[in-house]
Amino acid sequence: MDSHEGTRWRFPTDAFVEILLRLPSNTRRRFRLVSRHWRNVVDESSLMFPQCPKTLVVTDGGSPFVVDDRTGRRRDLWRSSTPPRCRGMCIVGTSNGLVCLCDDEVPGGAITVANPVTGETLDVPPLPLPPPCDDVSREQCHHGRWHQAYSFGYLPTTKRYKVVHVPCRLDDQDCEFPTLQVFTLEEESWREVAIPASFSGCNLDVGIVHINGTMYWIAADGDLVSFDLEEECAMLVHPQPWMSNKCFLTEVHGRLGVVVRDMLPLMEKNVVWVMDNPQWSRWYRLQVTPPRKRPGQRPRGYQRLTRPHFVQYNDHVLTWESNSGHIGLYKHKPRKNNESIGWGSGGWGGAVGINDTDRGMVVADIEGCSDTRVFAYVETRESLSVYTLGEN
Length: 392
Known about the structure:
The protein has helices spanning 5-9, 13-21, 36-44, and strands at residues 54-59, 65-67, 74-76, 90-95, 98-103, 110-114, 121-123, 150-155, 160-165, 168-170, 175-177, 180-184, 191-193, 209-211, 214-218, 224-228, 233-236, 247-252, 255-263, 268-276, 279-288, 304-305, 317-322, 326-332, 350-354, 361-367, 372-377. The chain has 392 residues and is mainly β. Strand 20 and strand 21 (279-288) form a beta hairpin.
C-alpha cells in the first residue's frame, strides 16, 4: 500500500486531519495502519492525545469546566455555539468527546447528546414512562434524580452509541421502572430488554459505570450486575467484590473498580478494589485524618475520592472537600510501599495519606457549590448529524 502513497493515499494534510477529527477518538488509531504517511500524520498531529483525557468537573452551582491534566489550565466546557438549554442539564456521562445530558425538570428525564466542540446536539426520544410516572407534571418534577438512572456508552465493535435506563425505583416520586430500556443513536425509539427480575432495583447511590462496551450496576439484593451492550444481555459478575453500604462504582484505567469507605474514630479509609483478570485486587488506599479547627481559618471537611472518576491518566488521584458553599479539588501522587496493595497491571496503584500538613496539590477552588462529580473527557469534532433521522 505504501507504493501508492504518492497518488492514491496522499492528499493535503490539513484536510486529512480535519476528517480524522470528525471520527470517534478511539477509531483514529486504526488509520495508522493504512500507510506510512497516514501513520505519521496521526502521530504528529496530536490526534493520539485522546489517550490522555482531560478532567471534566461538574458542580451543583456553576458551569462545568475542563482541566488539562498536563498543564493544569482550566476552561469552560460549553462554548458560545452551545445551545443555552444544555447549560442547565445534568451530565450523565461522556464517551469519545460526546456528552450525554439529562433535563431533570422533565418527568423521566429528557436526554440530549451534545458535542461541546462543534455545538451540535441530538435529542433522544422521550423514555416510555410506566404509571404513575406518566402522570407526573413538569411542576411536580423537582427531585433532580432522573439522570442517575441513565448511562451512556460506546460499542467499538459496532461503532454505535447507546443510552441505557436501568430498572429502579424513585421513592420520592413514587416511580418504579421495572424494565431495562435501551436507545441506540440512529434508531427511532427505545427498546425494552428483558433481564432477570433479580437484577432489577438498581442502587442509584452506588452509581452506574460503563467500561469498554459493558455497563455495571448494583441490584437491589446487593449483587453486582453487568450488561453487555453488544449482546444486550445481563449477568452476575463473578467473583463478586467485597462491598459495604458505603461504596461506589468507578472506572480505573479501563477496568471496573469499587471504592469502599470505612469510617473509623480518628480517620477515614478508602480502599479501591479493581477487577483484574478476573480476580479483584486492591489497587489504591486513601487514608484521611480529620482536619484540625484553626482560629481564623475556614473550616475544612473530609477529603474524599471524586466520583464517578478519581484517577487521571498519569495515575494522579483526585479528592475533593466541601465547606460552607465552597469546594476544594486536589490531586495526589500515590506512593508505592511494601504492603500488599496490588499495583495492578501496568504498575498502577498505591497509597495516599492526607493530613493537615499534606492536603495534596490544589487543582481548583470553586465557590458557590457543595457537590461535585468528575468525568474523563476528550475533545472531538465528530458530527452528530450522521445519527439524525429525517430532518435535523
